[in-house]
Request: fold
Amino acid sequence: MNSFVVELGVLLLVALLVIVVPSAGCSCNAQPGKGSKIGQVVKVARVGFIFDTWEVEIISGASNGVAGNQPFHATAETWELAARLQRHMLRQDEVAVTYTTEWACSKARTEGPCTFITMVHPIRHFPYE
Reply:
């Protein structure tokens, strides 16, 4: 009976490690830094198997009908920032975001490339005089 309990305990430990270790890993980036991006928010999604994160996708030139631009993927770390991005997406606003890209980060913080949005502001277009 004791060997059965030990085997069951080992099996549960292995199963836990198989689930937790890959999802709690880390991502690395060759070029950490800070920057800004202008574009239209086309996706705000809460994703994750164990750790939920707010993943965002922005496309430059989307409002101008420019095709072929690579999407910008980043993570909004707070619910408030994700909600602001979602509002701008639904309004189809062009926005300016500032972001930081870290050298390494935990998979618990992002599903993407360690890029985190820090601020978002709508771009106001004024007619030419």
About this structure: The chain is about 25% helix and 40% strand. The beta strands are 26-28, 33-47, 53-59, 72-76, 94-101, 104-106, 115-122.
